Amino acid sequence: MKKSSVAEILKSETFLQEVQLKGWVRTFRSNRFIALNDGSTIKNIQCVVDFENTNEETLRRITTGAAVSIKGTLIESQGKGQTMEVQVSELEILGDSNPDEYPIQPKKHSFEFLRENAHLRVRTNTFSAVMRVRSLLSYAVHKYFQENGFNYVNTPIVTGSDAEGAGEMFKVTTFEENKAPLTEDGKIDYSQDFFGKETNLTVSGQLEAETYAMALGKVYTFGPTFRAENSNTTRHLAEFWMIEPEVAFMDLDGNMDLAEDFIKSVLTHVLENCKDDLAFLDNRLTQEEKTKPQAQRSEMSLVEKLKFVADNNFKRVSYTEAIDILRNCKPNKKKKFQFLINEWGADLQSEHERYLVEKHFKCPVILFDYPADIKAFYMRLNEDGKTVRAMDVLFPGIGEMVGGAQREERYDVLVQKMKALNIDEKELWWYLDLRKFGTAVHSGFGLGFERLVQFTTGMGNIRDVIPFPRTPQNAEF
Ligand code: 4AD
Ligand code: MG
After folding, report:
1. Whether residue 162 has pLDDT greater than 80
2. What atom in ligand 1 is closest to the CA of residue 405?
3. C or N: which end of the chain has fewer Cβ atoms within 10 Å?
4. What is the pLDDT averaged over residues 109-131?
5. Of 309, 324, 317, 406, nearest to 367 (Cα)?
6. pLDDT of 166
7. Stretch 228-250: mean pLDDT, rounded?
């Protein structure tokens, strides 16, 4: 008899067959009914113990969290709540779980408490559902790109360049504290460090991805990125995963089409292939919404929101149009925004992005053609000389999901821009080479994977959609 997963057994249509399964006890009631979960599905299977023929010691050891191996017969269930159950003939305790010490009791725990027990929280319904959806989403990401002719590129994690020019990087060094050699002018002499230069953890694989796009045509990265920004928000992590496609001969319009098609495709994949987990998360969110005042409740359920995004066009709006809308909107006029929008050129804060998406357009929005001054050096300058071919995709409840651009492919314009921003040309000589040898229009974007998981699962805090979150003051586990 081969061991089956709970998911397989629940799909089976033949009763009276012998089954063997291994999993963890979620609950044990009346000395008879085990709710067994093995992670293969959100659903538990009920295993009915013949308590008269089971010794007391074994019964005592069937506790929440214990690992067990069960052999038995699959029968139609007598009780309500399930269609089938396993009549246990053999039960072995594989690993005990002391009920006085096990933190994950069969009751509602706060997410804060579960974050402190991140090594065990995946044993709850909510976290196991989130992590299965996360896994399926990452499969859908690869599936989409692989089926559309993209090559998967692994860009370096240790790098010498600051792709975003924001200076929010974690240093990588083998120098010991206070023992780093100094140069004549008293600065740390990185030429003697491991890599012979100053290095950091990457904030984005874009610059390296561009080099590959200029030979392979269509590429994407999907890897960890690191930002030492001291943002304690529900949407920021210090370590997060980014998906970055980069395509040669594609302009900003093509980039917007790609971002929209990509997001719709992965959401559709999850809607079709993760129904049980989504149904659970949908219900969880509905319950959570009920605790909020009426005015703050979402009009749509989680699944409705996902379908809405998958089935409707994103709204494309230029930065200039967005500023007009924001300047004249109620919260701006009534000074309800923390940062008031007075003039063209202002950087948009998350309160503005959310107003546009949640109140004004009520759908995902792609903002494009931002002022050059508030965007990164590599974005293509428009003919007006003051805006760049940037785009951000904004999502309800999340804000910025995607940031991207058509890249500056003109050597002289790029060099000028780097000079103006004090970016060392010698440091990025290889990036400039792309503009010297066979340069071409090209574009790409970065999508924060955890923000996508957040939107898909309806989880309010980004710390709850990555197994072990890294945030300021927190690197436990
Ligand atoms: O807008 P960003 O900074 O864009 C780039 O890094 C470009 N080089 C991408 C490219 O064009 N290839 O970051 C891209 C996305 C954001 O839209 C957001 O979803 C996510 O990455 N992101 C974060 N997610 C979680 N925690 C953080 N601290 C994040 N910072 C950015
Ligand atoms: Mg951005």
Report:
1. no
2. 11
3. N
4. 97
5. 317
6. 75
7. 96
CATH fold label, 123-148+250-464: BirA Bifunctional Protein; domain 2 (3.30.930)
Task: Report the half-sphere exposure of 214 (CA within 13 A, side-chain side).
Answer: 21
Q: Label residue 118 by pLDDT band (50, 70, 90).
A: very high
Q: What is residue 310's predicted lDDT score, i.e. its pLDDT?
A: 96
Q: Radius of gyration (Cα) for the chain, nearest Å? A: 27
Q: Ligand 1 test: best mutation among 201, 241, 451, 455, most atoms within 8 Å of CB?
A: 451
List, chain by chain if needed, residues with CB within 6 Å of any ligand 1 atom: 163-164, 204, 206, 227, 229, 236-237, 240, 242, 244, 400-405, 444-448, 450-451
- How many angstroms separate the alpha carbon of residue 341 from the centre of ligand 2? 19
| pTM of the shown model | 0.97
362 contacts: CB under 8 Å, gap ≥ 6: 396
Instruction: Write the DSSP symbol of residue 30.
Output: T
Average pLDDT over the chain reads 95
Ligand 1 mean position, distance from CA 242 (Å): 7
471: left (phi over 0), alpha (psi -120 to 50) or beta: beta
Identify which ligand lies nearest to the alpha carbon of 166: 1
Q: What is the residue whose two structure tokens read 């909107």?
A: 329
Token readout for 76 is: 């139609």
Separation between Cα atoms, residue 77 and residue 247, nearest integer Å: 55
Q: What phi and psi, each to the nearest 5 degrees, are found at residue 307?
A: -65, -40
Chain Cα centroid distance, residue 425: 33
* Residue nearest (by alpha carbon) to ligand 1 atom 27: 236
Q: pLDDT tens, 139-148?
A: 999 999 999 9
Answer for the pair 389, 368: CB distance below 8 angstroms, yes or no: yes
pLDDT beyond 80 at 163: no
Cβ atoms within 10 A of the Cβ of 65, count?
20
Backbone angles phi, psi at 225, to 5 degrees: -130, 160
Domain boundaries, the chain: 6-102, 123-148+250-464
Mean pLDDT of 30-37: 96
What band does 51 get if pLDDT is binned at 50, 70 and 90?
confident
pLDDT at 297: 86
> What are the beta bridge partners of residue 387?
371
